[in-house]
Amino acid sequence: MKVTVVCEHNASMDSEEGKTAYPEGLGVCIAELLKAKDKNVTLIRADEQGVHGLTDEILEKTDVMFWWGHWYHGAVDDALVDKIAYRVQRGMGIVFLHSAHDSKPFKRLLGTTCSLAWREVGEKERLWCVMPDHPIARGLGEYIDVEHEEMYGEPFDIPTPDELVYIGWFRGGEVFRGGCVFHRGRGKIFYFNPGHETYPTYKIDKVRTLLLQACDYVAPVSGVAEKLGCRHFEEFSIK
Ligand code: ZN
Q1: 53 C-alpha to center of ligand 1: Å?
Q2: Following CA atoms 71, 72, 74, 79 in sequence, which dihedral angle do they give, to the nearest 10 degrees?
Q3: How confident is the model at residue 234 (pLDDT cuts 50, 70, 90)?
Q4: In the CATH scheme, what is the homologous superfamily, with its name and number, of domain 2-111+179-226?
């Protein structure tokens, strides 16, 4: 399986907290996790200049994409967003992490503002599984605890998820639809809220298992279609 991890680099990752959480880099952490499970991973950097090196060739071979972005969503080229969205509609899986709720591809695919409430005080989140038999939640028990996380709260302006797998509860009292699956065309999308860059959330065993299971779940079942449309179009069109 070919997986492309697009991860932004921002100054917050260079802070003491950011470096303590991910000395190797958050994107490297996710890429290494997937590589260890036999995924063929390409790590792509995004920053204030946009997304670097995500060529058509790489995109057209990608089965599953992971997207982490925060500060520089606006720098992502609209033509690239179009291509990513179309590939999802043709069957590519995509996992949006944490602040990628505000990314262009996520908003394009969902069609809403995807806005939410937030507070950054490093409070505890408990993610309750509300679909215990879902493949993404396999073997992970009733809940996953993240001791320190940025609070994301409702209302989360998304379409009603096709599969709501986790609801997060925060120490401060808020709840959030933190683990959601959406189907768009032939593709599957998974959104997962934990993963602020200054907390080592992606080092938690259960979170790591969840990310791997999410990758497998959104992967195309029978490949990515070359194009969408009626295959009889030529035959029936009026000359
Ligand atoms: Zn954050």
Answers
A1: 25
A2: -140
A3: low
A4: Class I glutamine amidotransferase (GATase) domain (3.40.50.880)
